[in-house]
Write a structure and sequence with these properties.
Elements (H helix, E strand, L loop, with lengths): L5 H14 L2 H14 L4 H13 L3 H14 L4 H15 L12
Length: 100
């Protein structure tokens, strides 16, 4: 809708994640990440989209990048724990995120 508007893309990505549209969320958050590569929140959103889309390795790489950009962010730290729990089999792959 507005490919160069970061907030529009962030909101569209969030809606795709909330609805469980994993591949669409990945495409949107990847495009927004390219526009704002130093934004830890956008990197974390892309990581979450990758997780919803079933790409655990990509999700781990992206959450590590987000953590490197903002090591103190508690939301990113929680997302990292969730991804690790999914990887370790303690939690099932989420198909969507009901709360945003």
């Amino acid at each position: 809708l507005a490919p160069n508007e970061i907030e529009v893309g962030r909101n569209l990505g969030a809606e795709c994640i909330a609805l469980g549209y994993g591949q669409e969320a990945i495409a949107v958050t990847a495009a927004i990440s390219a526009l704002a590569p130093d934004n830890s929140g956008i990197a974390a959103n892309h990581s979450l989209a990758l997780l919803i889309g079933g790409d655990i390795d990509g999700a781990l790489r992206e959450v590590q990048r987000a953590t490197g950009l903002d090591p103190e962010d508690p939301i990113t730290q929680g997302l990292k724990r969730l991804i690790e729990d999914v990887r370790d089999g303690a939690v099932r792959f989420p198909s969507k995120m009901e709360t945003w």
